[in-house]
Structure formats: structure tokens, C-alpha cells
Amino acid sequence: MKQVSLRSSPPPLSPKHAVKPMDFDHILDAVDVSIEPFALCEIKGNSSLGLGRRPHATLHYFLAGEGTVSVSGHKPIPAVAGSVILVPAYAEHSIRASGIRFTDLPKCHPLDVSIEHIQTGTGKGTLAAICGKVSVVYRGLSGTMDLLNAPIIEAQEPDDRVRTALDELINELVSPQIGTRALARALLLQCIILLFRRRLQVRDKSLSWMRGLADEGLWAAVRAMLDHPEQPHTVDVLAECVGMSRAAFAKRFSVAYGTGPIDMLRTVRLRRAAELLVSSSIPVKRVAQLVGYDSRTYFSRAFKEEHGIPPEAFRRNVTDSTGD
Question: Is-contact 33 136, C-beta < 8 A?
Fold first, then answer.
């Protein structure tokens, strides 16, 4: 069975926009990255597993078989043994198996380490994956925002460092011991850090906001948006936060984060609204006010543009458990 390579060659970087190796420590030190393994999924035959919208990014490491991952707003993503796909928070997605046969997996014991074993579909071929909850947020702020903008997709060769760490995880699940869950978490975290470093080096657009953390001079403005999204921020006010002129701030912000400050503010507000809708029973009108919208109608329209569905439907559809 031929594997599909998803890794692209790094595009040439201009000195002005490149992230220097020394910046990686600043970037990764400025965020909290955590991961929690939650399921071993096996999809048999030509079947699919709907995972809905989740309030966290989701990592899928495919162990065997072939299929696709469908993420709202993106083309279907091929999934083969060795593929690693990281799906952003609140992005509706599903996994479909192609029904192609493969060599049997080792007999894993996920329930022994308190993760689910999800099995669905019928047939001879099976697409299998380890799945984990991922959080990537700014460190030390009262406000949080997931820093992943779009799916990260890579197919790992057998001797790749990421795949080596994940294969070690499988060995732990085959023979669970004292500390297996903690080690599984550490191995998945190692995988995430290696992926982030690699994708930062090639200026992956899905990590454009994380890459922006290399410019520490802009942090005060970002902090103001995250801590108080309800405030009437303007470019002038945000520029004053960092002691810059309006024009210089707007240009520097766009270079660092790949978007304008007001565009980021809008996304911050609508992601915070998503968190409030999922984690509380606060009425939609009050949620709108808490993130800086005086008009519920305008808020609902903006929310649908950002997340694809109105806030009321979003509250009903987000799930934190694996579905069939």
C-alpha cells in the first residue's frame, strides 16, 4: 500500500518575515501547550465517525488503514498510517474509512489507562487512530484563545521523530503499566512540540498567531484584547498600549500576526463567545454584551460568519465526547 506524502517543502523566507531559531523558545515559552489522550478509534469498512464541534483542538494519529478526515471549510484530508492531523477547536469534523484491509493492530488496552475504545462500522478493513485533546493558549493571561487557525497535516516516515514518539505510545497501550497514562500524555506533548517547531520553520499559516508571539513588543496590545474583549478597542488605543504610532503599530501587527489588530479582535471576541456558550447557560444576549457587542442581531450575524452556524445552534451542537 503506497502512502501519500503530505509534507511540503519549506517556502523561501525573506529575512523580514522569517522566524529565527532563537525565537522558537520565546514563542513556546509564551504559550501553555497541554494534551490529554482520550480515545483509540477503530472505524471498520466504508464507514464514518462524526466528531462534531469540540471546545478544544483534536489530534489524530493514524495507526493503520486508509481514509479521509473532513473538516468544515476545508477539502477532505487523506489519512494513512503515519498521518498526524491536528484539527482546530470548534471546527466540525469527521473521519471516514475507505474499507481497505491492513495488517492487524497490536491488541491495545485503552480502558486500562482510562481512555475510550471507540469502534464503529462493519467490514474487513479498519482505519485506526489515537485521538487526543489539545490546548494551545497564551500563558499567564486571564483571557485565553486557542492559537491554531487551521488544520495541521503531516504524514510521518517510519523513522521520523514524531512517529517514533507516537509508536512508543502504542507500545505503552499494548502493555499498560504504572505511569502509562502520564507517559502517554508526555509522548503526545513531545509530538505536538516537534510538529509546532517544524511548522513554524516553514511559516505554516495555521500557526501564524503563534509565530506572532516572537514580537514581544506587541504583547501588551494582544493582552488587552484577550483580557478585556468587551472594551471598545481601536487601533489608536491599542497602539498607545505599546507606545507606537497608529500607522507603525498597524503595519508591525499585520507583519507579525498575518492579520490586522481589529480583525484579530473580532476573532478573539467570537471565540470567547463560543467558550461562554459551551461552558455556561448565560443567555445569548448577555454573551454578546460580555464580548463587546451591544446588538444581539449584529452579534448573531458575526458569530455565524465566524463559526458557520448561529449561536443558539452552536450551543446545542458542540460536544466534548466522541460520537457515532
Answer: yes
pLDDT, tens digit, for every residue of 244-278? 999 999 999 999 998 999 999 999 999 999 999 98
Amino acid letter, 193 = I
Per CATH, the homologous superfamily of domain 21-211 is Jelly Rolls (2.60.120.10)
Side-chain half-sphere CA neighbours of 195 within 13 A: 31
Domain chopping of the chain, boundaries: 21-211, 215-317
Query: How confident is the model over 132-136, as a mean pLDDT?
Result: 87
3 state SS of 216: helix
Q: Grid coordinates standing for 210?
A: 503563534
Alpha helices per DSSP H over 175-245? 180-201, 208-211, 219-227, 235-241
DSSP run (H or E) holding 323: none
Task: Judge whether residue 3 has pLDDT over 70.
Answer: no
Report the predicted TM-score, pTM, of the whole model to 2 decimal places: 0.80
Q: Are 115 and 39 in contact (CB under 8 A)?
A: yes
Going by C-alpha positions, the residue among 136, 135, 55, 48 that lies closest to residue 319 is 55
**Cell 451542537 sits on residue:** 317
Superfamily (CATH) of domain 215-317? Homeodomain-like (1.10.10.60)
> Sheet of 31-44: strands edge to edge?
116-121, 31-44, 126-138, 57-64, 83-87, 152-155
Q: Which residue has the cell 493503520?
A: 64
